[in-house]
Design a protein that fits this description.
Layout (H helix, E strand, L loop, with lengths): L21 E4 L5 H12 L7 H6 L10 E5 L2 E13 L3 E11 L8 H15 L4 E5 L2 H4 L12 E2 L9 E5 L10 E4 L17
Parallel strand pairs: 4-5, 6-8
Antiparallel strand pairs: 1-2, 2-3, 3-4, 3-8, 5-7
Length: 196
Amino acid sequence: MVERPRGQIAPPPLLHMETNMKIVSETGSHNAAVEKLVAEAFGPDRFAKTVYRLRNGIEAEASLSLVALDKGEVVGTLRFWPIEIEGGVPALLLGPLVTAPERQGEGIGSRLMKAGLARAAEQGHRIVVLVGDEPYYRRFGFTRALARRLSLPGWVDPARFLARELVSGALAGVAGMIGHPGMEAVPAGGKVRQAA
């Protein structure tokens, strides 16, 4: 028995969950399960969002598209998309990150994030951006401050537009609109909106 100073509460016992969960590369056999998870998490309105429009017409990076499998069932997914920051600076757009609703709180999203970011760094990627909640993504190195000089081709809540450098200093002096690799990054109507 461990003795504790008077008034100190013992931590709760660790719960051990029996699992065979693995993080693996997404394959065509996972597509239906991945799309179902994403649809359940974000609904049909997701296609109108700026990041979905930005992904339109480009393929996710196959080597960075991951699924969490537990006993053969897809319980989480993460994808990265190639993008370019004005001036020809390559980067990645992260998302969506989704965990099956009944499996949330088990660390699946964290495992996917750590595996995906490690792979991206190993492959030589330098910059990753996303739209998400900073309090969650901060633990993976994402901040609003790093995205302040970047813009998306449409409106997003500026507080949710985040970036991370996989190589220290990768965003130094980088600013501008984000678009498809090798393409003009001007939204329909020809007006560029700054993401404050």
